[in-house]
């Protein structure tokens, strides 16, 4: 389901974690993870966020597209799969495609 500002406000409430902050935490967890299974779960989660246009600006700010691209060169097949999935989800938006081509 796609989201919007109103839906996000309803879901997070007044004192909840913003989407940008939550995605930043996921990126930090991925970068600090040492076990492949943990990285796989986090990357799959990030790839799921990449399908919703609401998240595109946040993902760009956090360089998540670069993270997806980095993962497709990993020896771990799951990281490759989730990296490719994240890239595919991001490529719906023209600006995301342009960003990827510049990398």
UniProtKB/TrEMBL annotation:
Coiled coil residues, start to end: none
InterPro entries in alphabetical order: ARM-like, ARM-type_fold, ARMC7
Highest classification ranks of the organism: Eukaryota, Viridiplantae, Streptophyta, Embryophyta, Tracheophyta
Tree of life domain: Eukaryota
Protein name, entry field: Variant 2, Armadillo repeat-containing protein 7
TM spans (from-to): none
Protein species of origin: Pisum sativum (Garden pea)
Alphabetized SUPFAM superfamilies for the sequence: ARM repeat
